[in-house]
Structure formats: structure tokens, C-alpha cells
Structure of 2-phospho-L-lactate transferase:
Amino acid sequence: MSTQSCPRVLALSGGVGGAKLAHGLYSILPDWQLQIVVNTGDDFEHLGLHISPDIDTLLYTLSGLANPATGWGRDGEQWLCMEALSQLGEADWFQLGDRDLAMHLSRSHRLRQGSTLTQITQYQAERLSIQARITPMSDDPVPTRVHTDAGQLDFQHYFVKERCLPQVHALEYTGADAAQPAPAALAALQEETLEAVIICPSNPYLSIAPILALPGFREALRNTRAPVIAVSPLVNRKAIKGPTDKIMRELSIQVSSASIANHYADCLDGLVIDYSEQTLAHTLPLPTLVTNTLMQNNDDRCQLAHACLNFASELKQAKNQNRAFS
Amino acid sequence: MSTQSCPRVLALSGGVGGAKLAHGLYSILPDWQLQIVVNTGDDFEHLGLHISPDIDTLLYTLSGLANPATGWGRDGEQWLCMEALSQLGEADWFQLGDRDLAMHLSRSHRLRQGSTLTQITQYQAERLSIQARITPMSDDPVPTRVHTDAGQLDFQHYFVKERCLPQVHALEYTGADAAQPAPAALAALQEETLEAVIICPSNPYLSIAPILALPGFREALRNTRAPVIAVSPLVNRKAIKGPTDKIMRELSIQVSSASIANHYADCLDGLVIDYSEQTLAHTLPLPTLVTNTLMQNNDDRCQLAHACLNFASELKQAKNQNRAFS
């Protein structure tokens, strides 16, 4: 089956920035050559629904259903159910669009019937005619807990309800130690034919760290023959969207792409940074590509994707030579 | 609490016809003087949601949220979620409106959290500012099974998916024997202050029979001091809506209000029939009121409610005299 064939490119993604680059890669690669491992640390139960925000964002983005204004949720969305839920006194701090609800209903129903998140995501991607393999990082729950000055918060409480306002002391990827990383992700990393692993410009601490916290995942990333490159989410020392830079400051991490390189450290063969951070380039201890990382439209996404694949291609030769000599 | 006070009138209801008369009674009675026992034989699980169509219809009708064109569902409804569910390949034979979905989500979530259907219905009625007590017939599942020439069908499969087309051989109120009838309904029937029990012009076989099949319910109805009157759902020997007359023919029951009287038999002190069936009046073995039972607008609902209460008031005196002599 085409969905089971070996991908040429493996991307790690979470959030809106991640989905944008994944979309760029998806747009320029032939069908079924892209596999995306998605963060599920943001997943939560809400009104009896299993909500996987990062999977949804990716499915909507790749199928062209995403709301272009927000980057999350669906285009042409309406909120009649939400309004009626409020009228019934139900929690209304998490926005559930009428169209979006179908995804949560379908997923929750199928989970209760015994399907795995991986199976369901693959099914939903097929229904939305997506010709890429989307792999949740794990079928086991690994809910991110945010330790803040307002107490320990579930991720969505911190992120949506509290709008990232509390100061973060630590992040905890609950259950990661005992979780089984997606076999399809580990298998892809071992493939000889894999040409690139691209860590998308997602929040390194909230979106990518949960994936790397899974047993064996970081090691698999270190051992893959393909070059591993990360795209720094910082532009002008700020995150385009979301609390990356705020969290870095709160965790006493210097807000710089150098810190991003350091975060991925031993896994990384190359870093992609924005023009606005180019003065860093010569100070970094690894190959660095300077380009435009701000994705304001589809062309930007495709150009960044191209740049990443070319960069990976250069690095691949070097990596395999090193490997041959080591 | 006002919601706990004794009702003056107890109505048994299911479906659109039942909700219309219940609404008439609700409109003319002072707050909290009406209690409505609702059929839950139509309840079913769909896409992980617990759907109680007759409770929903009643809640929407009494709160003024019902769709006036259909009688069921909500006014100003839209179907974006349904459209997205179809896109995801989920079952779409049962219409779930975007606003309506909130009711199912709220109920399903609260059931999973351990609340009873009775508690949830009371909560929802309060949220919708309904000043009447709405009592699901039981908190135990009593799903109606329809034995047809197309096999045994779950009620909603027969009713919605198959549009009542298969020929009915028998109706089965599954689990009724072991179900606990709503204590609040039995208690109301024992109240000295109860002035009338009104069996609404619902489908006697699909909407009212499940209530009467609950252990002790029929006996409580026989023993109540209040007069029990039924409003025949037939006008011109046809049901206004739904398959009542079709089912009567298929079960070899004469399509006549006389058969309705016979169906309720020992429970009944009086029958209300439509002008179109008035030639029956002198042939029936019990007091009969002939009036307009077709409820095309709110005035019709109130007039029929008034007629029922007046009729009950006349019957009450006679019933209590008989009781004194017996």
C-alpha cells in the first residue's frame, strides 16, 4: 500500500508553525514521500471529547481546510453549538467550532470503539484525501503539565484558559517514560532511504520536547542515517506565534536560535535560522542555513521547504562520509 | 424548592404531538404546577452521544427554542457539523443540528460523569428557564425494539433510517420489566393534591406504552385519585404526524379512537377525541369529550389544554364519589 511505503522525508511537528512547514514539504514532495510525526502532548478530554489540537491543525492545513486567518481551526467555521453549550452552562473556554466538532466526535467515538489514535488519524487523513502519512507520536497519553506560579496546570488550561499568562517554572511530559513511541516513526528513522528529518519551527519545549521525551526516540534520531535539521521558530528573537520566547525567558534560557540548537544538541546535524538572526550563524557549533523562515503565504512555505531539503541534501553527503570514517 | 413541590397536573408525553399539548398545559398552568413524564424508549447511542429525542423535543418546545416548521429540533438550526461528519465518513442518517448537538454533548458528558438522566434533564430544564418538572420515565435504559418484516430494528433505525417503512409485527420495550420507573412520577400519582393525569396525543404504542410497561406504573395510574384522561392522537382516523395509524393497521388494530380507549382501558377515566371522530362518542364505554385536537398554533395548544383540564375537573368529582362508595 502507498501509505505503507517508506517516506523520503520525516518531519516532527506541532502547532501552527509546524503545520505550515509540513504543508510546504507536502506541497513540493511527491505523494506519500512525507511522513509527519505529530505532538500529542496537547491532547485533552473536554466535554467527553478527545481533542488532539496538533493533529487537527495538521489535518486541516494539509487538506486545505484550515482557517487562513488563525492557522488553527477550520475555514468557514461557525459557533452555534458553542453558543448552545454556553446556554446550557457547559464549559465554554475552549472554542469548539461547528465543523471542527465533527473531527472530535469522530475521533472520540472511534477511540471508544477500540481503534487507536494512529489508526483513526490515518483514517481521517485518507478521508480528507491527504497523501502523506500522519503519525501521532504515541497512542499512549502523554499530557503536558505546566508548572507555573499559578500552580500545576493541564496544558490547555495554561494555553487557552489562562492564555499563557502564568509564569512557567517547569514542563512535565507526564507518562512519557512509559509511553510507546509510534513504531512507524522509529521504523522510518531506521530506513536507509530516508533523506531528511526536519524538526519544524514548532515550540521546541511544548511541541517537540514531548516527542523527544519518548523512550528511544532521541536515540533513534541520533542514529538515523538521514541528516536531522531543525528550523528555529525565532524571528527577531521572538516567536511568530505562541509563547516560545516567553517560556524561554521564564525558564532562564537565552532567547536566541543558539539556545534552540543547544536544545536539540546531540540530535542535530544542521540548523535553519531566519535572516533576522544571521549574525548568529558563525557562532553556532553546527552547519547553519540562513534564509527566510517567516511563512506568510503558501509560497513562503514551499520556499522554506525547498531550502530545508536542499540543506539536508548537502548535509547528507557529509554525514555519510563522517559515518564511513568513524 | 419550587421544583420539588407537588404538581397539580401530571402529563405523559413523547414525540411532537405530546410536546405540543404539554406546552399548552405549561402555558396555562401556574409555574411548577405541571410535571411531565417523558418517554425514553426512543433513546439511543449515536457517535458516542446519548440522544434522548423525546426529552429534547419537550425541552425545546417548552423553552420556545423548537423549530416551528418541524416540531422537533431547534429553531435557526444549521448543519455544518453534520456536513463535516459526512466528509469524515461518519454515519449521517440521523440529523444532528449544530445547536442541537450541544444538548447531546452536555447530556452524554454528564452521564459519563455519573449524573442520572433525571438529574441532567432537571438541570437542563432549569438552564432553559423551564418552570415545570420534566421527569424521564426511568433512568434505566428501556430501548424500544421494532420487530418488522425487515428484521428486528432499533427504534431509531426503524423510525429515522428506514423512515417507518418496514411492516411492524410487534413492539418490544426491552428491559422494561427490570427498569425502575421514575420515583417522582410514582410519587406524584399518589399525591392527594393531584388534579389530573393527561396522556398526551402521542403515539400510544411507541411513546406511551414504554412508560406503561414499567413495573408498577400502570397500577399507579389505576390507583391515582386524580382522573386519568387520554387525548386520542387520531384526527380523521389518521395520525397528524408519525406512524400511529400505519402501525395500528400492521398490528391489526382498528384505526379508531375506540382502539385508543381500549389500549389504555383500565387506566382511563375519560377520552378526548377530535370533532372528526365525534360519531364515535356515544359508542365508547367511557366519558368522552369531543373537541378540536388539531394543534396548529399556540392558541390551539392552550385551548386543548383548557378543555382537558375542565374535562378532568368534571371527572374528578365523579371519580371521588365512586371511590367513596366503593
